[in-house]
Structure formats: C-alpha cells, structure tokens
Specification:
4 helices; alpha/beta
Amino acid sequence: MAFNTNDDDREQKTVVGFLIGAVVLLAIAIAVGFGMSRAGVFGKKDGAASTGSSVMAAADAASGAAAADGAASAAGVAAQAGAASADQGAATAGQGAAVQAGADEASVKVVDGVVRFYFASGKAELASGAKEALADAVAAAKAGKKLVLSGFHDSTGDPARNAELAKQRAFAVRDALIAEGVAEGSIDLQKPEAMPNTQGNDPEARRVEVKID
C-alpha cells in the first residue's frame, strides 16, 4: 500500500499556517493590550496633573482674595486715621481761632475791687456789663471817695496813635461813670502808660482800670 506524500505536505503546511496566524494574533493582542494599558496610565497621570493644577489655581485665587481684603482693610484703616487726624486738626484750628477771637473782644472784669476794661484791637467801645461792673465804684464816688482811672497801651507801633487810642478808651470809661451820676471832680484821669515788652496784640496793653482811692 503506497502513501500519499502530497496530502501529508498539505497537512503540515496547514498546521504551520495556523500556528503562524495564532502567533500573529497573540502578538497583536499583546500590543493592543500594552497600548491600552499605557493610555490608561497616562490618562491617570494627566488627570492627576490637571487636578493638581486646579488645586494650585484655587490656592492662588484664595491667596489673591486674602491679599485684596488685607489691602482694602489697610486702606480703610488709613482713611479712618486720616479722617480722624483731619478732624483733630480742624478742632485744634477752631480752638485756636476761638482763643484769638476771645482775646480780641472787649470785656470787663473786677479783680480785688479794681474794675478792668479790656478793649478790642484798634477800638474804644466798652464791653457790655460796664454798668454792673462799675456799681461799687459809683457808690464809693458818691460817698466821697476818689476814683483813679489809669489807661495802658502797647509799646510797639506808632506811639502817638497808641497814646491817642488809650486816651479815648479812658474817656469812654469816664463818660460811663459820669452817666451813672459820678461828679467829674471825683475822677482822677491819669495819663495813659505804655506797657513794656508787648508784642502788638496783647490784651493787657489795651485796658483801663478804675480804682477806688
């Protein structure tokens, strides 16, 4: 009985072809699986990187917001401090102006029985309340006492003008006494004296005193 060698060759070729195909398919499957695995790993890495970037961005935004709030708070404190400083400066200026205005206004007061009339700068008008301040002096003069009027003026500026203004002020006080019934002979009107070491706006250099002798 003879063997058919052609059939054996065909079977061998079929087996070899099948094996080769299986190897190729396995290689393709391995390659595809490796590729997918790499793609998954890279995706996770990319996702982590993206998440980290988002966290850093959020942290930067929060830090920027905190810095902005701090700057706004500092600006508010500075504005309040500036406003308080401005208010204090305005109050100080107002007090200074009030003191200056008070120093330049006519006034009258009685010190140890001596009536002192203070006059506004450049003026000879008596302050209100002159009648009440002169009440004791008027009573003493009517009882036979002598009243001495002493005027004072600034030592700076025009001496003739200062002396004339001081005389007018003394006359104003004299006329007030006469208006209250004091005889002119009971009034000793002395020559005004210059106040030494005055600076041109000293209230003490713009006064007339009435003393009971």
